Amino acid sequence: MTDQTATPVAAPPAHGGPPSVEVPRRAWQALVVLLAGMFIALLDTTIVNVALPTIETSLDASESTLSWIISGYALAFGLALIPAGRVGDRIGHKWVFFTGIALFTLASAACGLAQSDTQLVVFRVVQGLAGGIFVPAVTAFIQLLFPGRSRGQAFAIMGAVIGVSSALGPIVGGLIIQAFGETSGWRLVFGVNLPIGVATLVAAALLLPAKHPADPAGKAGIDWVGLLLLTAGLVALLVPLIEGQDKGWPTWTYVTLAGGAVLLVVFALWEIAYTRRGASPLVPPHLFSHASFTGGVILALVYFAAFTSIFFTLSILWQTGLGHSALESGVVSIPFAIGSIIASSQSNKLAERLGRTVLVIGAGLLSVGLIWLWLVLRSSNPAGLTHWDLLPPLLIAGLGNGAFIAPNAQFIIATVDRAEAGAASGVVSTVQRVGSAVGIAIIGSVLFGSLVITGPDTVASGFTTAAGNAMAVSAAFSVVALLLVFALPKRTGGHGPAAPKRAAVAQDVAQPTA
């Protein structure tokens, strides 16, 4: 990362672009502040996985609560992204970022102090909401503070922070629980955010510009009715998916599922009517007139449902089923993390050289890795199952994930016109988070729904079988995602007069998302 004591950095000239523009040292200092926020937001997507079994024991939490802890965070995070970005455009991104970090820090403290599983889920949802509030400001400030080639450098650094924070999560969580014990350890997992959050608040107040000259006018309002309908529809779908198995699938679960589907239809109709009134909808309906964009959105939903559920399954198996420690559970994730970091560091270069093929390779490797994991869990003797058995498939899956994650939004956004790129970026980011929430809901239902334990001697075999079933569903999602990749253009630029503009915008607005 750039030396903060160095003189201002001059951005090298982009090929065929304007002359290089000097980037002030203060911009790089601001980037450090912004990425500190991004670090804790992404750390919390993975650090909690290894704490789930100890949370279950400490709070006597239900199986569905474990799914809510992950799904609630992801759903709230995703739903806040678009409104928060528009509020930032209107009033300036500094205080939106500051407010989000403050709320995230307070919610983290509340999670660590929670006295019941219900309290923890509520505070976890607030934490996700806070993350969704401040994360759009990170990419907005990068757009505003870094011109030309330096913007690409800033996004590359952000991608590295995303990869490292996601990779560190399980290890840091495991080390904390190992050092402080199960009862205090899972609470301190949330406490990690407190010193970082406080330091980020102070630095943000001092270093982030209150209003940048390049800020957009931000005249578009927020579609609150659309947001309410979308939130209600998604929650109505998630509640029965998460609670249904635990409750024995009573009649209300099917009624709620149907109600959720109806609400999503009403949301779509409202967005069409809202657009015809000349207002700015939450999800512009005309985006879906592009068949490739529609396929890309489904791809984002399915892919994130596939890969974010892997370590939910493995953490429950490794600790609750096989009796390993939280640290040992964190060690299991290392091959996947290493593969992701290696491949993501080269993914943009590969995308320039191979085009869409890099996404085919990425989704293909993830599919191979997850199918291999399923076969290992299905055929292994639970008593003899070790992390070495999972190392090769997790490394392959991690390489695939790293190759796919960074360029995937770039290719999806390239399917729409330049004027639509900003709206498309917001939709894709939201759908990725919704996919994570839906994936955990479905995988949790399969995992606990197929769990059969008839006595103490069958705990390991019961959890291994159930984990194998859950991994089979994750693998099926990944295969569907692989097929959907072919809906995207072969190149982000494509052909024709509008292609260079679409490619340029896609490069500007796309960013790695974990």
TrEMBL record:
- Positions with biased composition (Low complexity): 1-19
**Keyword match Nucleotide-binding:** no
Using the UniProt annotation, give all residue ranges assigned to the region (Disordered): 1-21, 493-514
Q: Which residues cross the membrane?
A: 30-52, 64-83, 95-115, 121-142, 154-180, 186-208, 220-242, 254-274, 295-318, 324-342, 354-374, 394-413, 434-454, 466-488
As for membrane topology, the entry says:
Multi-pass membrane protein
Q: What's one GO MF term for it?
A: transmembrane transporter activity
SUPFAM superfamilies linked: MFS general substrate transporter
What organism is the protein native to?
Microlunatus antarcticus
Q: What is this protein called?
A: EmrB/QacA subfamily drug resistance transporter
